[in-house]
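Progress note, sequence design subtask.
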C-alpha cells in the first residue's frame, strides 16, 4: 500500500531530540525528510555510550541514529548568503518545516512565521520550544529536563516525600513532545487537504509536561493544593505500592480496586488470615491501618527474592510487576515478541537493535530499521533537486565537506 505521507516533503531545522524524533516518525510514515544542519554537525552526533557513562565503546550515537533514521542530510552554513538562498529554495519546495530554533533567531534568517506564510501560504510550520512561541518566554531556551520536568511539577512530584527531586532520564519529555508535534502536523495536513492552506503547529515542552501530568494538574489548578505525594510506608492503598525483596530489588503492586483483589492477594502471599482481620477487612480499614499492613507486607516480601516473587505471581490473577533495570527490560524475550524493538543493518557498525516506533499501522509497516544519514551525505543531490545552480552546489558542497 502507499505510504501515508508519500509525496510529502519535510525540511527539518533542529537539533537534539524532540523535533528530530518527530521528523523521524514522519519519515517512517513515508515523508521525504531533509535534515539541515551546520557543516560541523550538531552535538547529538557525539552522544556515544562511552560519553554517556556506559563502559561499551560502540562508535556512534545510538540515540542520534534512532531519532534521525530515514532522513536525508544537508549541511549548510547559514552565515553564507548562498546557503541562505539554498535553504529558501528547499523551503519553497517543502510541505512542512519543522524547527526548534528560537523565534528571534529564525527571524534573523527571514524564517519567522509571518515571512514564511507570506512566501508559502500552503506551508505548514511546526515549531517546538521550551515555552509558548507567542508568550513572554518565547526566546528562552528550554530542555525537557527544565521545561518539561522541573517547571511542570513532574520533577518534584515524582519523588519520595523525604527524598530529593528525581533526576529525569534524558529524552523522556522530548519523545512525549515529539508525539504531540506529529499529531499536530497530521491534523494540519488534513486541513490543508481540505482548504489548501497551511498553518502553524506549536508545541512546547512545558505544556506537554503539564498535559502528561494532567491528572495532578487538573486538580491542583482548581484546588490550589500540592498533590499528595506517595508515602511508601503509609500508602492510601497498601496493595498499590512498592516493596523491597530479599535481594534488595523492588516489586510493584498495582491493584487499584483493592476490594476486588484483596482476598486473592492475601492468600497468594501466604497470609489468608489477614482477610479475616477486622483492621483490613475493607478498603477503608486498610487505609486507616495502612502503616500496620504495610509493615506486614514489607516483612513478607523481604523473605523472597524478586525473581522468586515474579515467578510466583505469574500463576496468580494479580496485577504486579518487577521493577526492572533498563537492561532487563530491553533483553526480555517477551518484550521483543511484542515488537518493541527493530533491527538495524548498518554498513559501518554492523547489526544492532534499537527502539521501534511507538505505534503501528495495519496498512503500512513502520520498521524502525532505516539508517540515519551521515552528516552532509545528501547535500549535493538535494540541492540539485531544488534547482540550485551547479556552481553554487559545488561551493556549498565544498563548504560542507570542510
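Output:
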Amino acid at each position: 500500500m502507499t505510504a501515508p505521507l508519500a509525496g510529502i516533503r519535510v525540511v527539518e531545522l533542529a537539533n537534539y531530540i524532540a523535533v528530530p524524533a518527530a521528523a523521524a516518525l514522519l519519515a517512517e510514515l513515508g515523508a521525504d525528510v531533509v535534515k539541515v544542519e551546520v557543516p560541523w554537525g550538531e552535538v547529538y552526533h557525539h552522544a556515544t555510550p562511552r560519553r554517556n557513562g556506559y563502559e561499551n565503546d560502540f562508535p556512534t550515537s545510538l540515540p542520534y541514529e534512532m531519532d534521525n533514521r530515514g532522513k536525508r542530510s544537508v549541511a549548510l552554513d547559514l552565515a553564507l548568503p548562498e546557503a541562505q538562498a539554498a535553504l529558501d529554495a528547499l523551503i519553497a519546495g517543502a510541505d512542512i518545516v519543522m524547527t526548534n530554533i528560537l523565534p528571534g533567531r529564525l527571524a534573523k534568517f527571514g524564517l519567522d512565521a509571518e515571512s514564511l506564510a507570506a512566501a508559502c501560504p500552503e506551508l505548514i510550520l511546526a515549531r517546538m520550544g521550551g515555552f509558548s512561541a507567542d508568550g513572554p518566554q518565547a526566546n528562552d531556551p528550554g530542555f525537557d529536563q527544565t521545561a518539561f520536568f522541573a517547571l511542570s511539577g513532574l520533577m518534584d512530584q515524582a519523588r519520595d516525600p523525604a527524598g530529593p527531586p528525581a533526576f529525569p532520564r534524558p529524552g523522556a519529555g522530548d519523545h512525549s513532545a515529539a508525539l504531540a508535534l506529529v499529531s499536530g502536523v497530521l491534523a494540519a495536513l488534513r486541513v490543508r487537504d481540505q482548504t489548501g492552506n497551511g498553518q502553524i503547529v506549536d508545541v512546547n515542552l512545558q505544556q506537554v509536561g503539564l498535559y502528561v501530568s494532567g491528572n495532578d494538574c487538573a486538580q491542583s489548578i482548581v484546588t490550589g493544593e500540592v498533590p499528595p505525594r506517595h508515602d511508601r510506608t503509609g500508602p492510601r492503598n497498601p496493595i498499590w505500592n512498592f516493596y523491597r525483596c530479599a535481594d534488595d530489588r523492588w516489586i510493584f503492586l498495582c491493584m487499584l480496586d483493592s476490594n476486588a483483589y484483596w482476598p486473592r492477594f492475601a492468600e497468594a502471599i501466604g497470609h489468608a488470615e489477614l482477610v479475616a482481620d477486622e483492621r483490613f477487612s475493607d478498603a477503608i480499614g486498610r487505609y486507616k491501618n495502612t502503616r500496620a499492613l504495610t509493615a506486614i507486607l514489607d516483612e513478607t516480601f523481604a523473605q523472597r527474592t524478586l525473581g522468586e516473587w515474579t515467578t510466583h505471581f505469574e500463576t496468580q490473577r494479580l496485577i504486579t510487576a518487577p521493577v526492572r533495570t533498563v537492561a532487563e527490560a530491553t533483553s526480555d524475550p517477551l518484550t521483543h515478541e511484542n515488537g518493541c524493538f527493530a533491527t538495524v543493518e548498518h554498513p559501518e557498525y554492523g547489526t544492532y537493535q534499537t527502539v521501534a516506533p511507538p505505534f503501528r499501522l495495519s496498512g503500512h509497516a513502520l520498521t524502525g530499521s532505516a539508517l540515519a544519514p551521515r552528516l552532509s551525505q545528501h547535500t549535493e543531490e538535494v540541492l540539485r533537486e531544488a534547482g540550485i545552480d551547479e556552481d553554487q552546489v559545488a561551493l556549498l558542497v565544498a563548504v560542507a565537506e570542510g
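Residues 239 and 253 are 6 Å apart (CA to CA). Work on this subtask will continue into the next period as scheduled.
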